[in-house]
């Protein structure tokens, strides 16, 4: 998408890597001068010595982040699901849950020309990506067009990031799992009422799969913004060199970006109509 925006001459841009378990952007460290910022998070810590296993904390948790078993008995905090809302602390009448400050990881940021780059990497002992995602959303440059890269999935990290977005473009690779992945991300975009489009990436010359994807898009009324072939064809032969910051015009990527803009404009018209 970054390449598509570059090809369409959009500037300034922010490229933010929200896939914190696989921060590809860090491969460019060295080409982009990235500075690291330590991020800490306050997480609930359970004190077993005070607990009477009443289960009130588990019942108060909307994220399903506390597993309670009255028969064992046990209370298990699932850190990766915790949004640190504080409900469980209020629910515990025995003061058995305290917030404790822990390292969450690092947020990396840098600039190259007018463009801004963001990525995050979790601390090796942290299982909570939520605070890093929150830190990334807080650092998005409001003056630029922000393109945020998410990994697949519907966990708290992805949800927390998507909640801050205006539009979703699902990149699918036409392998065996495209339909399942698409359905998952489609449901998540629907949860946040995000206008949705699709780009097929690394499309192999398998007409059957491509026709299935096209039929799915038509049936679900999802715009198909473009198909990027597996082997680069001339119109996609753009290799944007971050070090040079020199975009090379590419009609294929440019067309994809124009289709995305059309979707954004259409959504803005619908929103304005709903307001009047
Ligand atoms: S609310 Fe407090 S006492 Fe009850 S199970 Fe949770 S931690 Fe234990
Ligand atoms: S802080 Fe909120 S999300 Fe986290 S475990 Fe407690 S109730 Fe659940």
Summarize the structure.
The chain has 276 residues and is of the alpha/beta class. 31% of the residues lie in helices and 26% in strands. The chain has eight helices and ten strands.
Overview of this protein structure:
By secondary structure, the protein is an alpha/beta fold. The chain has 2 domains: 2-41 and 111-275, P-loop containing nucleotide triphosphate hydrolases (Rossmann fold, 3-Layer(aba) Sandwich); 42-101, Alpha-Beta Plaits. Helix content is 31%, strand content 26%. The protein is built from 8 helices and 10 strands. It has helices at residues 2-7, 56-60, 87-91, 130-138, 156-162, 178-191, 207-220, 251-275; strands at residues 13-17, 35-46, 66-69, 74-77, 97-112, 115-122, 145-149, 168-172, 196-203, 224-229. The strands form 3 sheets. A 5-stranded mixed beta sheet has the order 2-5-6-1-7. The protein has a 3-stranded parallel beta sheet with strand order 8-9-10, with helices on both faces. A two-stranded antiparallel sheet has the order 3-4. Helix 7 (207-220) links the parallel strand 9 (196-203) and strand 10 (224-229). Helix 4 runs parallel beside helix 5 (156-162). The longest helix is centred in the last third of the chain and has 25 residues, at 251-275. It is globular, with a radius of gyration of 22 Å. The two termini are 33 Å apart. The structure holds iron/sulfur cluster (2 copies). Residues 46, 51-57, 75, 91-92, 94, 96-97 line the site of one iron/sulfur cluster (SF4).
């Amino acid at each position: 998408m970054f390449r598509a925006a570059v090809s369409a001459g959009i500037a300034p841009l922010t490229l933010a890597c929200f896939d914190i378990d696989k921060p590809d952007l860090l491969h460019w460290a060295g080409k982009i001068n990235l500075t690291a910022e330590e991020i800490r998070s306050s997480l609930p810590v359970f004190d077993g010595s005070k607990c009477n296993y009443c289960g009130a904390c588990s019942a108060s948790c909307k994220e399903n982040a506390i597993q309670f078993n009255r028969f064992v008995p046990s209370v298990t905090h699932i850190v990766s699901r915790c949004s640190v809302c504080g409900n469980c602390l209020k629910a515990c009448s025995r003061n058995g849950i305290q917030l404790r400050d822990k390292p969450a990881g690092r947020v990396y940021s840098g600039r190259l020309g007018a463009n801004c780059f963001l990525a995050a990497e979790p601390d090796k002992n942290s299982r909570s990506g939520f605070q890093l995602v929150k830190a990334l959303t807080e650092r998005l440059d409001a003056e630029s067009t922000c393109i945020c890269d998410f990994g697949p999935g519907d966990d708290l990290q992805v949800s927390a990031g998507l909640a801050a977005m205006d539009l979703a473009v699902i990149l699918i690779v036409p392998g065996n799992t495209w339909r399942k992945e698409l359905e998952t991300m489609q449901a998540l975009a629907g949860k946040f009422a995000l206008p949705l489009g699709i780009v097929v990436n690394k499309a192999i010359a398998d007409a059957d799969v491509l026709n299935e994807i096209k039929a799915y898009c038509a049936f679900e009324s999802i715009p198909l913004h473009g198909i990027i072939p597996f082997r680069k064809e001339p119109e996609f032969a753009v290799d944007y060199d971050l070090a040079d910051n020199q975009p090379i015009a590419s009609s294929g990527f440019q067309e994809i970006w124009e289709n995305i803009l059309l979707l954004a404009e259409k959504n803005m018209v619908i929103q304005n109509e709903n307001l009047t």
